[in-house]
Amino acid sequence: MAEELTQAERDLLSQIAGLHGMPEGAFNIRRDGELVERHSSANIEISTKTGEPGIDIRIAPGTKNETVFIPVIVTQAGLKDVVYNTFYIGEDCDVRIIAGCGIHNDGHAAAQHDGIHTFHCGANSRVVYVEKHYGEGDGDRILNPTTNVHMDEGAVCEMELTQIGGVTSTIRDTNATLGPDARLVLTEKLLTHGHQTAESNMKVELTGDGSSVQVISRSVAQDDSIQVFNPLVIGQAASRGHVQCDAIIMGNAKVKAIPGIEAASEDAVLVHEAAIGKIAGDQIVKLETLGLTEEEAEQEILNDFLN
Amino acid sequence: MLELKDLVFEVPATDGTDTPKRIIDNLSLSIPDDRFTVITGPNGGGKSTLAKLIMGIEKPTSGQILFDGTDITQMGITERARAGIGYAFQQPARFKGMTVKKLLDLAAGRKLPMLACNEYLRKVGLCSASYLTREVDKSLSGGEVKRIEIATILARDPKLAIYDEPEAGIDLWSFDRLTETFRDIHEARDGRSIVIISHQERIIQLADEIVLLRDGRVVDAGTPTEMMPRLALSARGSDGCPLTEPTELHLTEIPTTC
Fold this sequence. Notes:
The complex is a heterodimer. Chain A is mainly β. Chain A has helices spanning 7-17, 281-289, 294-306, and strands at 26-31, 34-39, 44-48, 54-59, 64-74, 80-89, 94-104, 111-121, 126-136, 141-143, 146-151, 156-163, 169-178, 183-192, 197-206, 212-221, 226-235, 240-249, 254-257, 260-263, 269-277.
C-alpha cells in the first residue's frame, strides 16, 4: 500500500488518523471511493456491504484493547463519495475506532464525502470513537457526516468528532439512542474560516433508566464563516443529560447555538448551557506577560480551546 | 533596576466634568536589583494601576519608566516581558482547554520536566501532581487559580517580579507556604527584584523597603522597623466613614403601619 499512496496522501492520513505507515491490526483505507487496502484481525472482521457502498465492521464479543482504523481520503475534484459503514460491537468489548476524512482538492469541481456511520454498541461494551475531518487545496471541499449510535444496556461510548479546518461546507447529523445505564460522551470540535459554513444537528434520546449523556461542543468561527448548532437531548426515562456549547467568534463570523432539552419523564434531569464570545482580553494579556506576541497568544488559546 | 520618573496616569472623568481623574500623581520611585519591595496602602490608592503601568498593561499619561537604564515607557507588554518583567495578576485569567502544565511551559518558554513543574506547584502549596493535567478553567477554585498564577511567575523567573495581592483568596496554610517561598527567592539574592502589593503584615515584614501609596502618590517609605509603627498610626488616623446626623429625617414621615 505504501507504494500506492503519494506523499500528499500520506500526509492527509497522518493529519486525520495519526497514521505514519501501515497500522497494526484491523484497518480499511479508502481513497476516492475505492478500497486501497483492508486487513481484518482475529476479533475484528471487515467486509464489503452488499447493496450499498461501504463496509460492515464486526467486533467479536469480549474483544479488549484493540483499535480499528477506517480513514478515507479524497483527492479527485468532482468526486462525490457516499459510504455506509456499520459497526457491530459485541458485548463486553473495549475498543477504539479511528475514522476520519481528509480531502485535498485543487480542482474547479467540488470534492465531497458523505460518510454514514452506524454503531451498534453491545451491552457493557466500551467504545472510543475518534473522527477527524480536514480539507486542503483551492477547490471546494464538502463533508457531510452522519453518525447513528444505538447503545445497549451498560454500554459506554466516548465520541470525539473534530473538524480541524479547511472544510468548505459541512452538515453534520448525529443521532443516538441510549438503553438502560448506557453512557455517552459526545465531544464535537469545529474550526471554520474564510467563507466556510458548518451546521451540526444532534439528537440524543435517553430511553433507558440510568442512562446519561454529556454533549460538549467547542467551536471557533473565524473570518466570514458561519456555524449553526442544534443539539437536542430528549429524556424519556430516569436519565441525565448535559449539553454545553462554547464558541469563540472572530472577525465577521456568525454563530448560532440552539441547545435543546426535552423531558418526557419526571425523573429526567437535563441541563443545557451555551456561550458565544470573543477571546477574553485578559487571556491574551496574561500570555503577553509571559512573553508571547498577541498573535502567538491567540493561537495558543485557540489550540487549547479546541485541544 | 527599575526607575519610575514623574509618572502620571489619568482616566476620563466619570462625574460629568472635563477634569480627568488622576490615578497616579507625579510618582517617582526606584527599585534597585536584589530588592524586596512591598507596596501597600488603602484601596483605590493606585497600587494595581502602578503595577499595570510597570508591566505595560496601561500606558502612562506622562512620565518615564526605565528598566536597567533602558526607556521602556513606549514598549508593549510582550517586549517588557521579554526584557525581564513578570506580573502575577490579582484576578488571574482562566483558559478553557489549557492545562496547568501547558501554562507553566508557556511561562518558562520551554517544555518543563514534570519534576520541575511539581516543584513550582509545591512552592505555592499545591502538592498534588494531578494538578498538572487539570485545565485552568472554572473547575479550579479561586484559591487554586491564584496559586497557579503565582507558580507561572516562579516558572518564568523574571528579573523583576510583581505580585498583585498574592495573599487574596488563599487559605492560611497555603499562605504560610507562600511567604516561605517569597523569603527563599529573596534570600537567594541573585540579582532579582520582587515587588509585592500587599496588606499582609507577614509579607510586609519580609520586605527590605515598604512604600505607602495613597491617592496615587508615595506618601511614605522605609524599612519594616521604621514603617510598621507609622503604618499602624496611618490606618488609625484614616477618616473611615464618619457618622453624620440624620438631620433631614422626620420620624413622623416613616409609615409604621406595615
